[in-house]
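Handoff note, outgoing to incoming analyst
You'll be picking up this chain. Sequence as last confirmed:
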Amino acid sequence: MVTSEIYRPCLEKAHNSILTSNFVSDNVIRFKHSRLSLGEIEILFNMLRNPFDVSEEAVDVEGGYAGLISIDLPIGYSMDFFKTFGMDRWESIKEVLKNMKWRRGKKELRLSLRFNGKPVVAFSLDTDDNKTFGKALETLEYQMDVILFQIDAKRLPSEVSEVSYGFDKDGFRWYPTKATGDNAEYRFSNDEWIVQK
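Most recent structure output, in case you need it:
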């Protein structure tokens, strides 16, 4: 196929530079993937690499997933992310991810987005439904006020270092699955964090 012939040298050059670079910098996006085509890897790599550097790694995944995409961002979940990254680029990345899911049909694509602020905010999604996958990506910015309310320093226990979110496919919204830190786990109920027992 002509397309993969064109992309291969660029991808190999990018991949080789990743293997020889020292990733001590805080401005590095860690992009892990499994079962993606060379073209898909290159497109995502190129979209993610500005204004940050990108560390790309192929990983093995067990299970019936048609693919895995894990993006670990060196910036917190806030409006600053969308300003730094740029809304046009974010919209393009969402479209590429939706297209990747669409190409896999009714097979599950697992997506993990991790925003490394205080606290770390992690969004996990695995679904075989294209509509659910698309809605989940769209609501990442639309639910910002609610999510920022949930992770507000006044509301969140001080020892919490990470808050994990899952996607409710019936309500089409992200919900906090847990908050963790200092050997404790919390759940969000009635607008407050409660220690899990």
